[in-house]
Amino acid sequence: MRGPNDHRRVQMERMQNKSNLQVTFSKRRDGVFEKATELSTLCGADVFVVDFSPRNKQYSFRNPSVESIMNRFLEINPPTNTDVANPVIIAHQNANIDEINVNLNRLEISLEKGKNMDKHFTHQGKNLQLKLVPLTLKNCARSWKLQMKKFKEY
């Protein structure tokens, strides 16, 4: 007989229902990341967790940074066979690529908005003497790099 606070035990076998599988994955992933945050906060541990959903989406948690944790890991566990790709390194590279792609997409959206605003002001205000800094992908990337540098220094 179970008490009011007892939990039902879940059989440890792969779920067949894809909807339940995704919901369970999301909840348990959040729980794992919560525990990783607690471990990092309470114990001062450097934590890096990567998981892939049933739909092959990548999720990661890291504290303080992927680079510092990977550098420590590789110092302690140097690759034994350099011809074979290390899955940890590949996951690290993919995480960085995904992050860079998200930022690039944001920059491209900002660039497009800026171009649209520039067109609007050019057509609407021929008599206005506005000095606009040309909004190019290069300027956006420069701004993004400065922000990332400030963020890393923080």
TrEMBL record:
SMART domains cross-referenced by the UniProt entry: MADS
Presence of the UniProt keyword Transmembrane helix in the record: no
Gene Ontology cellular-component terms listed: nucleus
UniProt keyword annotations, A-Z: Coiled coil, DNA-binding, Nucleus, Transcription, Transcription regulation
Highest rank taxon of the organism: Eukaryota
Coiled-coil blocks: 90-117
Molecular function via GO: DNA-binding transcription factor activity, RNA polymerase II-specific; protein dimerization activity; RNA polymerase II cis-regulatory region sequence-specific DNA binding
Annotated InterPro entries: TF_MADSbox, TF_MADSbox_sf
Single biological process term from Gene Ontology: regulation of transcription by RNA polymerase II
Pfam families cross-referenced by the UniProt entry: SRF-TF
Domain MADS-box: 5-65
Main location: nucleus
Location relative to the cell: Nucleus
Protein's UniProt name: MADS-box domain-containing protein
